[in-house]
UniProtKB/TrEMBL annotation:
Major localisation: membrane
Lineage of the species this protein comes from: Bacteria, Pseudomonadati, Pseudomonadota, Betaproteobacteria, Burkholderiales
A molecular-function term among this protein's GO annotations: signal recognition particle binding
Species this chain originates from: Pseudorhodoferax soli
Annotated ranges, domain SRP54-type proteins GTP-binding: 341-354
Example GO BP: SRP-dependent cotranslational protein targeting to membrane
One GO cellular component term noted in the UniProt record for this chain: plasma membrane
Record protein name field: Signal recognition particle receptor FtsY
Keyword flag Cytoplasm: yes
Compartments it resides in: Cell membrane; Cytoplasm
Length: 368
């Protein structure tokens, strides 16, 4: 099973004074390129099988791409609106200036942005020259490589478990799918034996608290909330409660707002400052600050990333609703102008429609 996040194991608990601690067993090395997650958060399972030897680990890793086949198929289907205008450029028979002009127009229409489009086309021309390509079909493959290389800086796993609790603050405008994304993350964290506490710091909208409560009930997790209370106070209480109750993760939902609503952006800054004050151990709370953006909004999503990053210092993105847009090229614009890591992308409403971001998978699906 492909994990949604990468986890650093917690330090082992000290043995009682009268007992002689047994030497720690060596763990198998983490395979390159894989989000290694085996019995996270130190939880023990009854009659758990021992970790496989390296040969079995290699076999398990080799089988992993097959497990993501269904996801890649859904991603291709979801990106069809974005990719169709780009792929039609390669139906001709010649590699000439007209092809590059059509490709430039298609990338701009996909909201890749002027800067990213210029960089991609310059890189593509170099690749075509070096490969001595003569057919448009070959140029298509080289463009996949160019897009994958451009997006690779955005590919980074979300680390959970380095601190206890790991505090994750989640922001986003109304309608981007913020609370739903929090629910999906909660489901996967809980499925991997992580104890989760939800903080309903969106106190302005009763529906947000109710929606978060539904996800909490589905996943059997606790929620800290106050009707009409101060959002920063709810976040502060949640961190203290998470620490006192030994929770692994505290997810803080915040009120949806537009970057132009300066008074509400100030409220976000206040929540972040309050979380820092709750960090009595000095571990760097909040450990993650995520922004959920709607892929349908194209270049406006880039503006949101810049505004929220300037205000609260983003550490990662969740890009939703890529299945309903022709503007999926905005990830290229983000990579060039504000390369905040993309932890997850979504192409639907189902639980399995939110997955970790992989640059090459995305590039291949885009032009698939």
């Amino acid at each position: 099973m492909f994990s949604f996040f990468k986890k650093k194991p917690p330090a082992p608990e000290p043995a009682p004074a009268e007992a002689t601690p047994a030497p720690a067993a060596a763990e198998p090395p983490e395979p390159a390129g894989r989000n290694w997650l085996r019995n996270p958060f130190g939880g023990s399972k009854p009659e758990a099988a021992p970790d496989p030897p390296p040969a079995e680990v290699a076999a398990e890793v080799a089988a992993e791409p097959a497990a993501r086949t269904g996801w890649v198929d859904r991603l291709k289907l979801g990106l069809r609106k974005t990719g169709s205008s780009i792929t039609t450029v390669f139906t001709g028979t010649r590699i000439d200036e007209a092809l590059y002009e059509q490709l430039e127009e298609a990338l701009l229409m996909a909201d890749a942005g002027v800067k990213a489009t210029t960089v991609l086309l310059d890189d593509l021309r170099r690749r075509v020259k070096e490969a001595r390509a003569t057919e448009p079909a070959a140029v298509r493959g080289l463009l996949v490589d160019a897009i994958a290389d451009m997006l690779r800086p955005l590919q980074k796993p979300l680390v959970i478990g380095e601190h206890k609790p790991t505090v994750v603050m989640v922001a986003g405008v109304n309608g981007a799918g913020k609370t739903t994304s929090i629910g999906k993350l909660t489901r996967h964290l809980a499925a991997h034996q992580a104890s989760v506490l939800l903080a309903a710091a969106d106190t302005f909208r009763a529906a947000a608290r109710e929606q978060l409560a539904v996800w909490a009930d589905r996943n059997y997790v606790e929620t800290i909330s106050q009707q009409g209370g101060d959002p920063a106070a709810v976040a502060f209480d949640a961190v203290n409660a998470g620490r006192a109750r030994g929770k692994d993760v505290v997810l803080v939902d915040t009120a949806g707002r537009l970057p132009t609503q300066l008074h509400l952006m100030e409220e976000l800054k206040k929540i972040r400052r309050t979380l820092v004050k709750a960090d009595t151990a000095g571990t760097g709370v909040p450990h993650e600050v995520l922004l959920v953006i709607d892929g349908n909004t194209g270049q406006n999503a880039l503006m949101q990333v810049k505004a929220f990053d300037d205000a609260i210092g983003l550490t990662g993105l969740i890009v939703t609703k890529l299945d309903g847009t022709a503007k999926g090229g905005v990830l290229a614009a983000i990579a060039q102008e504000r390369p905040v890591p993309v932890y997850f992308i979504g192409v639907g409403e189902k639980l399995e429609d939110l997955e970790t971001f992989d640059a090459r998978e995305f590039a291949q699906a885009l032009l698939g």
